[in-house]
Amino acid sequence: MKRRDFLTLSAVGAIGLAAPSALRADKPARKPNIVFLLCDDLGYGDIGCFGQKKLKTPNIDRIASEGMKLTQHYSGSTVCAPSRCVLMTGLHTGHCAKRGNGGPSIPANTVTIAKLLKKAGYATGMFGKWGLGKANSSGTPGKQGFNEFYGYLDQRNAHNYYPEHVYHNKKKVMLNGEKYSHDLIMTHALKFIRDNKDKPFFCYLPVTIPHAAMQVPEKYVAPFRKIYPQFEGKTAKYSGAKTITNPIACFAGMMAKLDEDTGRLLALLKELEIDENTIVIFTSDNGPHHEGGHDPEFWDSNGPLTGLKRSLTDGGIRVPTMARWPKHIKPNTVSDHLSAFWDFLPTACEIAGVNAPKAIDGISYLPTLLGKEQNQTHEYLYWEFNEQGGKKAVRLGNYKAVQTDIYKDKDAPIRLYDLQSDLGETKDISAKHPEVIVHIRAIMADQTPSKRFPVSYNPNYKRNKPEKKSEKKPRKKSEKKSGKKH
User: Fold this and answer.
1) What does pTM read for this prediction?
2) Residues in a beta bridge with 165
3) Residue 29 above 80 pLDDT?
4) How far is residue 327's CA from residue 66's CA, in Å, rounded to a whole number?
5) Which entry of 210, 277, 326, 464 is 20 to 30 Å from 445 by CA?
């Protein structure tokens, strides 16, 4: 695959305003609004409509029951910053600027979905965790196409739900650790929607729930302390946040808060009478974590999948995803269309009636959402990750390939799984399919190397921390699933 320069702004100037083919037959009088609600470390099995048994998430589940559930949708990466970069640019981690947490801000000339929609006449707002540029850098939301921003610039500050400060556009807003940031983020997001109800808008809402600090106002935790009193003696602390007690009850309280605010969002769209002209997409930036006292085994947070955050097995990157658009997306539908975060940019462009840049990795999945034939599909999906010895993964049809320990072995073996019969990625079948491994090695090699986030053999590499022997999650025999599409 020959790649062009992905990070030039020339594509923005060439945007056309032709109506997308999928919408021509029933084009709204006004361009549709787009709301993208991105959760932080929400696992594939953490919400009711994706199999959660211990928690109730009725408002979140409404997005699926009143729209479509996408069961084979993948995040951009297995950690937050690169996943967000992929989402904004339509480029997977073989091509995008930020491929790991940390590092420099994204360049000023990056083509983002916010820039494209803003040029097309959309009001653009971003509320929550950004992670792509610090204050006064080239990567701030204001320099990447957003009219309004409220929240965290540096994802490390988002480790605390009661931070010392957040940002409102360029201004640092001091909170002095006294206010719950999620409430402020939701307040500004809902105000943005209300203020722009008479024009097309793009509301990007990357909330921090349920990230590792497990903090939420006590009124949300109290009911679950009664349900799970056996964990009252357990305490947990994450990063600079304060110590909490009963992290099991705290996680449940966070999920109750997330569900409540999702309901507030849906109610506002109906109140403003823009419900039928607004598509809401709900998903997560990567798989569940094992930090801050969270117990993904107790909650079965990754459902039938194997692996957690920082894994490239599906538990780390396949995310619960739903889309709701009354009178456009048929209610209570399910799709196993293979898609990923880099598909959002062309999908949003098609919704808005603008041409997406050609030099991207994404393919619009709007036809799938509208129940039409999906003529364009991916040959493969690709990920790379520069932590824990270097990792790469490829999804090729029903095959899933994972390569680890790349830094210490230039010919590191590739594990191969058939997700059709082995959703949990437990049986390596690479020895039976050498021709598939040859093809996958060619795909892995046909990417653009990153100097800042290299994933290649390094003879001087020394692992600082030993990686766990297995990325697999122990499960009972009754929990193993095979032969089903999810």
Assistant:
1) 0.91
2) 174
3) no
4) 10
5) 464
